[in-house]
Automatic annotation (TrEMBL):
It is found in: Endoplasmic reticulum membrane. It comes from the Eukaryota. It is a multi-pass membrane protein. Keywords: Endoplasmic reticulum, Membrane, Transmembrane, Transmembrane helix. Residues 4-145 form the Reticulon domain. This is Reticulon-like protein.
């Protein structure tokens, strides 16, 4: 989980650029070329198989050997699998609970929020293709943290917050005051 956060927060810029490039290629393949995801997967497998075949021929021609890889290094630990399963179960349970309460009508504010969210998602789905929405979300997820990281050091704390924190004698929520 932390590796994904590192990529999104641009702590690993090379990986972030690689993810954005892959997302751009997927968007181009699905939206611009009007192909489906099955064609994308088959094209990727086709390119990988030919690349491996060519590398095998080159290695055989140059008499290079490849060291064997320990398969235990590629296995997912039981703790990681349990974490992913628990996270998925919690998400589905929370979604089911919110939709049940909204459907019963016992919480009118929640009902309105659910209806407005579903209407907004429906409007977005009618106005743009699924690939376009996912591509825009990918760029949004990567650009917002990067922008905040670049802009945050330049933001000054308002004077009324500084005065309020000094009058209480504490540093409010770990803010740095200048």
């Amino acid at each position: 989980m932390s590796a994904g956060c590192d990529v999104i927060m641009w702590r690993r810029p090379a990986m972030a650029v690689l993810v954005l490039a892959c997302g751009t290629l997927i968007y181009y393949h699905c939206a611009v070329r009007n192909r489906n995801i099955v064609a994308l997967i088959s094209d990727v497998l086709f390119v990988i198989s030919w690349s491996l075949a060519l590398l095998g021929l080159i290695f055989r021609f140059l008499n290079l050997t490849i060291l064997p890889v320990d398969p235990s290094g590629w296995q997912v630990s039981v703790e990681s699998a349990n974490y992913v399963a628990a996270m998925l179960a919690n998400t589905l349970g929370a979604t089911e609970g919110v939709l049940r309460i909204a459907a019963l009508g016992s919480d009118f504010k929640l009902f309105l929020k659910v209806v407005l969210a579903l209407y907004l998602l429906s409007a977005i789905g009618r106005s743009a293709s699924g690939a376009t929405v996912v591509y825009a979300a990918l760029w949004f997820i990567f650009i917002v943290p990067f922008s905040v990281k670049m802009i945050a050091p330049k933001i000054k704390t308002p004077a009324f917050l500084v005065n309020a924190a000094k009058s209480q004698g504490t540093e409010a929520a770990g803010l740095e005051f200048s």
